[in-house]
């Protein structure tokens, strides 16, 4: 079950990004980096920008849940 396209209450489900997509962060410029996650609003982020997004969500009072696929892409292990 994919959770990359939904947020439930203030729990944001972050899923693995589709393969062969790049991070949406403009800072990468002409050197794109592969995306590893996709947020509920369909932004795709590399690992570094994923953690920045998690921090932003949590500071706004939200909670983050990673799908199994996202945990695998981020090398977080099973939980």
Key structural traits:
single chain, 79 residues, alpha+beta, five-stranded mixed sheet, 2 helices, 5 strands
Describe the structure.
With about 80 residues, the chain is an alpha+beta fold. It has helices at about 45-60, 70-75; strands spanning about 5-10, 10-15, 35-40, 45, 65. Strands 1, 2, 3, 4 and 5 form a five-stranded mixed beta sheet that branches. The protein is globular. Mean pLDDT is about 85; it is low at about 1-5.
Query: What's the alpha carbon Rg, rounded to whole Å?
Result: 12 Å
The coarse silhouette is globular
Binned strand content: 15-25%
**How far do the termini sit from each other?**
16 Å
Summarize the structure in short.
By secondary structure, the protein is of the alpha+beta class.
Helix and strand arrangement:
Layout (H helix, E strand, L loop, with lengths): L6 E2 L2 E6 L20 E2 L5 E2 L1 H13 L3 E4 L1 H6 L6
Parallel strand pairs: 2-5
Antiparallel strand pairs: 1-2, 2-3, 3-4
């Amino acid at each position: 079950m994919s959770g990359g396209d939904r947020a439930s209450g203030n729990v944001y489900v972050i899923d693995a990004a589709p393969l062969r997509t790049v991070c949406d962060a403009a800072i990468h410029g002409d050197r794109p980096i592969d995306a590893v996650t996709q947020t509920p609003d369909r932004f795709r982020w590399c690992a570094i920008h994923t953690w920045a997004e998690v921090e932003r969500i949590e500071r706004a009072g939200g909670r983050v849940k990673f799908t199994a696929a996202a945990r695998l892409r981020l090398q977080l292990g099973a939980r």
